[in-house]
Amino acid sequence: MLDWSLLGGPLPWALLGAGGAALVALLLPRGGRWWGRAVPAVLVGAAVLTGAAVLVVDVLWRPFPDPLPLLVVLAVGVGLVAVGLAVARLRWWTPVAAALVVLAAAQGVNGYYEEFPTVRTALGLAAADVLPFADVVARQKQYVGPAGAPLESGWRPPADMPDAGVVSRVDIPATVSGFPARPAWVYLPPAYLGSTRARLPVLVLLSGQPGSPDDWLTSGELARRADAYAAEHGGLAPVVVMPDHLGDPLANPLCVDSPLGNAFTYLTVDVPAWIRATLQVAPGGWAVGGLSNGGTCSLQLAVTAPDLFPTFVDVSGEDAPTLGDRAETIARAFGGDEAAYRAVNPLDVLAARPFPGTAGYLVAGLQDSVYLPQARRVFAAAQAAGMDVEFHPRPGEHTWEVWGPGLGDALPWLGTRLGLTS
Q1: What confidence tens digit (pLDDT) does each residue in 107-121 have?
Q2: What residues are paired with 287 via a beta bridge?
Q3: Angle formed by the axes of helices 39-55 and 70-88, to 10°?
Q4: Coiled coil where (predicted)?
Q5: Distance CA 304, CA 344 (A)
Q6: Which of 16, 211, 275, 278 has the most CB atoms around its CB within 10 Å?
Q7: How many Å apart are CA 46 and CA 80, to the nearest integer?
Q8: CATH placement of domain 128-417
Q9: The pTM is what?
Q10: Buried b vs exposed e over 97-130: b needs ≥16 C-beta within 10 Å?
């Protein structure tokens, strides 16, 4: 039951059907006073509260750069209507009915974002392939491969290599940066786990905002996608390190060193130092990727630390780091220094210097009216700066419908770029 899908099959429809039936039961007529007073009062109250919530989130608080989607607003409104009706018609069964409506509304939001693909992920339970890091960190004999040739050309999987990779939760200390990072996650492919360990490249992968490092594992099903790629290439796939670049689900330190946190130093000094000291991997030429805010960060790192990250995957990222608008961003994160902002703003950096050694893979949703135009601007600017870039729009909006499959589509490109395959 824990692995039942919340995105397809009978369960989502059952939840929506139960919620709809519960809402009808709450609305069943009880006379003129019910329909003339109680129901209108509940509807008006729910509309006012929903409008207030939108005002706080989209105008006053602004934790996200993009506004709440209409479906989310409607789901909040329907949930508030159900709660109001349950209170107005209080019986032993009305709280249960309201809970069913709220659950159905939440499933509607989940169906839009595709945040929780299974019951297990919705409950926050670990997947079966999670192992303590101490169980896989031991040093092994390493296969490096012939110089100048793809690793796959000479790799022979050892007999004890497993069929699937594993994921582990790890702590990456902020020794230099002091950044308040949450625990990170690591995906280790099959070719890392046998008695002979392939010397694999690294992909540093970043979440969106709001978000957590394990979002790529739960919502993006990274392990499944990477395992599928590895199965076609003798167990070879990048080692994926998923550090925290936010410090808090709703924080946005903009991938720079600022009063909001030293995220840049954490990602370019502390995280690489931990990788080199702890993992048996290729020493350099790594890739960085991410979605939405993490996609913006991956682009920033590609232009501000190109020697460390000459390869990037930008999935539905913005074309500039932002806290809502340019003026507020410069004031809050850069002390009002326009030049400091321009020094890390990707479009400004791309216009100022060439990047002939950098390659990028960009993804955005074809129905994403906010981020698709930004991805097109980034693609054009990157091409003009001499980057070897590809742009792959996918059907969908600013949701996991685009992000997970987008990364899956990028894996063959990454494998070639990082020297795994020809």
Answers
A1: 999 888 888 888 988
A2: 203, 311
A3: 140
A4: none
A5: 7
A6: 211
A7: 5
A8: 3.40.50.1820
A9: 0.88
A10: bbbbbbbbbbbbbbbbbbbbbbebbbeeeebebb
